[in-house]
Amino acid sequence: MSYSTPSPPIEIFTADEAGRRRHWSDEDKLRIVEESYRGVRQGSATARRYGISRSLLSIWRRELRQGSDSAAGDTPVFTPLMMEAGAGSSGIGSAERSTPDRIDLSLRNGRRISFSPALAPEVLARILNVVDPL
Prior knowledge:
By secondary structure, the chain is mostly helical. It is 40% helix and 6% strand. Helix 2 runs antiparallel to helix 3.
């Protein structure tokens, strides 16, 4: 006696039909990697959405981290801090200190973050860890 169970049709894709061996521009890679960091467990979902393997996405993430690390180098770098005097401020030596409405931070990777001075340091640290991981 033999049992036969229906099986779904099988499709065979060749490399050309499946679109493999695509060449992604650096801008596309950066956009995909940034999207993969937008939430918890988004790496696999992002990889599926773009039709790439999870391991390729991991490679791109590592390259991005290493690229930003190698750009920083091992030597300390002076980062200029530019402060703008407010309309009511009489200068840096003034006894009156005014709290800025927003703080703008330019990161090594070219991104800029604007935040309130009231933002808790722990929250800012978590944001920076996502936007510019070490």
